From TrEMBL:
Protein's cellular compartments: Plastid, Chloroplast
UniProt entry keywords in alphabetical sequence: Carbohydrate metabolism, Chloroplast, Glucose metabolism, Isomerase, Magnesium, Metal-binding, Phosphoprotein, Plastid, Transit peptide
Sample GO molecular function, one term: phosphoglucomutase activity
Organism (species): Dioscorea zingiberensis
UniProt superkingdom: Eukaryota
Protein name: phosphoglucomutase (alpha-D-glucose-1,6-bisphosphate-dependent)
Reported function: Catalyzes the reversible isomerization of alpha-D-glucose 1-phosphate to alpha-D-glucose 6-phosphate. The mechanism proceeds via the intermediate compound alpha-D-glucose 1,6-bisphosphate. This enzyme participates in both the breakdown and synthesis of glucose.
Statement: the UniProt record of this protein carries the keyword DNA damage: no
Enzyme Commission (EC) number: 5.4.2.2
Subunit details: Monomer.
Gene Ontology cellular component annotations, sorted alphabetically: chloroplast; cytosol
Enzyme superclass (EC): isomerase
Catalytic function, reaction form: alpha-D-glucose 1,6-bisphosphate + L-seryl-[protein] = O-phospho-L-seryl-[protein] + alpha-D-glucose 6-phosphate; alpha-D-glucose 1-phosphate = alpha-D-glucose 6-phosphate; O-phospho-L-seryl-[protein] + alpha-D-glucose 1-phosphate = alpha-D-glucose 1,6-bisphosphate + L-seryl-[protein]
Length: 579
């Protein structure tokens, strides 16, 4: 490969026995710190909080105290992160505590870098017992901003609630930290260092992941597209972790021009950016894709590389449409799905565009609560191949996390496949053409999300209670403007694999024409309450597919605001973000 990522010279031999004598383990007394409740995306706090005293060390020790010994003693763990501030320091702490607790080997990404989907891929490929991801996803990074840590299990999937609950329990009683007495490990060059029975291997964060991508996709097909003089692709890594992947994958392997990548160097503060690929935060990319002579396909990924946004020339694809279009074209364009996807799934608020594809392809279909974790069981049971969420997450069962680069390669594959016989100079089938064709075949699901961030919790909760109360009194057939109610409920999900039930997952008003209004409180906000309203309307009539979504959805939006009494409960006139 052309980049320096594999060949960088190390100051010591690639296998270095630093401490043949054995490992010295020190027990450090500690006292519990409050507020270490672990959500399903791990623990996320300000850097300052993590840096205080034993905050991070306590949580890591509580994690080892929570795992059955066979899940880590003498085992292998993967360690990686999104490159944000404090990762380097944190990596050293995590490795020393892992060694202190009897872990045999840590596979750590060079410079502590590894995207979330790549950690999932490496855990699976290397048959590791699990892995740590140092990331606060799309939250800003730097001394004043956020840090976070997640633990994934041997399937490559985020630890289940049964484990995260135990970790929290143990943070309340942790009294000693088992720390291996080893020096800081140089993460800047590849190689193996052994300290007695404990080994650290600094690995290239890209190779295993790239190998997986080469097995999933037809790289030659994509290469033929990307190297065409009449096709231009751009990728914005937002100074986050996919910067480490973009060059080796898009440039070195697929032959894209090096200048197709912007913000390609991972920085500890993401270049003062907010590494979230959406129309608000990926502003540079949006400007380029809506300018005159815009490229043909533009994409971005978030801090830890699991989210994605796809744009055509002057054209935005909603994540709900994106997963539906990928699913509809997967069998033809992506070798991994050559026998057809096993099943499709989306989160409840994600538009019903994917349902229509499942229907047409006669595939099993699942509607799960918000959160990637709900897809994992279905994948492990062989029931699910392709899934997505409206929150810019798309992926498949090749790993157990959503995967930004995978989504970009999926779109490149679709465009490449549709244009494979086109001569240079012949008009290419564009991202917009593919999308419009999809709408013409399946109908268009107009979709929008209104976010009211940092509302007072009390008002937001009262609004949800008011809606629950309303739902208990509604009857099918009631009229809301021009819409007739089919049903209204509080979404609840029974996992078809293990029978577990997740209730209170969002309030739905579903109308007879398939239109929906959904209310949910965000589970990821860090201050106050964030109310999300999801609005969707199905439109089979091709002549209306050109309409602006906000215009098409106006009557439903008005209904949503009036039935929820949002203004009365929150004092808000306008959403803070609208997608
Ligand atoms: C994280 C999860 C996603 C989920 C999203 C929902 O990004 O990884 O799976 O869709 O949170 O966030 P919200 O703020 O709507 O609860
Ligand atoms: Zn993320």
């Amino acid at each position: 490969r052309k980049t320096d990522r594999i060949v960088k010279a190390c100051s010591y031999p690639s296998t270095f026995v630093a401490d043949p004598e054995g490992l010295k383990i020190t027990s450090i007394p500690t006292t519990p710190v409050e507020g270490q409740k672990t959500g399903t995306s791990g623990l996320r706090k300000k850097v300052k909080v993590f840096k205080e005293g034993n905050y991070l060390a306590n949580w890591i020790q509580a994690l080892f105290n929570s795992l059955p010994p066979e899940d880590y003693k003498n085992g292998v763990l993967v360690l990686g992160g999104d490159g944000r501030y404090f990762n380097r320091e944190a990596a050293q702490i995590i490795m020393k505590i892992a060694a202190g607790n009897g872990v045999r080997k840590i596979l750590v990404g060079r410079d502590g870098l590894m995207s979330t989907p790549a950690v999932s891929a490496v855990i699976r490929k290397q048959k590791a017992n699990g892995g740590f991801i140092m990331s606060a996803s799309h939250n800003p990074g730097g001394p004043e901003y956020d840090w976070g840590i997640k633990f994934n299990y041997s399937s490559g999937q985020p630890a289940p609630e049964s484990i995260t609950d135990k970790i929290y329990g143990n943070t309340l009683s942790v009294s000693e930290i088992k720390l291996a007495d080893i020096p800081d490990i140089d993460l800047s060059c590849l190689g193996i260092t052994m300290y007695g029975s404990f080994t650290v291997e600094v690995v290239d964060p890209v190779s295993d992941y790239l190998e997986l991508m080469e097995n999933v996709f037809d790289f030659q097909l994509i290469k033929n597209l990307v190297s065409r003089p009449d096709f231009r692709f751009i990728f914005d890594a937002m100074h986050a972790v996919t910067g480490a992947y973009a060059n080796p994958i898009f440039v070195d392997t697929l032959g894209a021009s090096p200048d197709c990548i912007s913000n390609g160097i991972p920085l500890e503060d993401f270049g003062h950016g907010h590494p979230d690929p959406n129309l608000t935060y990926a502003k540079d990319l949006v400007e380029k894709m809506f300018a005159e002579n815009a490229p043909d396909l533009g994409a971005a990924s978030d801090g830890d590389g699991d989210r994605n946004m796809i744009l055509g020339r002057g054209f935005f694809i909603t994540p709900s449409d994106s997963v539906a279009i990928i699913a509809a074209n997967a069998q033809a364009a992506i070798p991994y799905f050559q026998n057809g996807p096993k099943g499709l799934a989306r989160s409840m608020p994600t538009s019903g565009a994917l349902d229509l594809v499942a229907d047409k392809l006669k595939l099993p279909f699942f509607e799960v609560p918000t959160g990637w974790k709900f897809f994992g069981n279905l994948m492990d049971a062989g029931k699910l191949s392709i899934c997505g969420e409206e929150s810019f997450g798309t992926g498949s069962d090749h790993v157990r996390e959503k995967d930004g680069i995978w989504a970009v390669l999926a779109w490149l594959s679709i465009i490449a496949y549709r244009n494979k016989d086109k001569k240079i100079g012949e008009k290419l089938i564009s991202v917009e053409d593919v999308t419009r064709e999809h709408w013409a075949t399946y109908g268009r699901n107009f979709f929008s999300r209104y976010d009211y961030e940092e509302c007072k919790s009390q008002g937001a909760n009262q609004m949800m209670e008011h809606l629950r109360d309303l739902i208990s009194k509604t009857k099918p057939g009631q009229r809301y403007g021009n819409y007739t109610l089919q049903f209204a409920d509080d979404f609840s999900y029974t996992d078809p694999v293990d029978g577990s039930v997740a209730s209170k997952q969002g309030l739905r008003f579903v109308f007879t024409d398939g239109s929906r209004i959904i209310f949910r409180l965000s589970g990821t906000g860090s201050a106050g309450a964030t109310i999300r309203i999801y609005i969707e309307q199905f439109e089979p009539d091709v002549s209306k597919h050109d309409m602006d979504a906000q215009i098409a959805l106006k009557p439903l939006i008005e209904s949503a605001l009036s039935i929820s009494k949002l203004k009365e409960f929150t004092g808000r006139e306008k959403p803070t973000v609208r997608q």
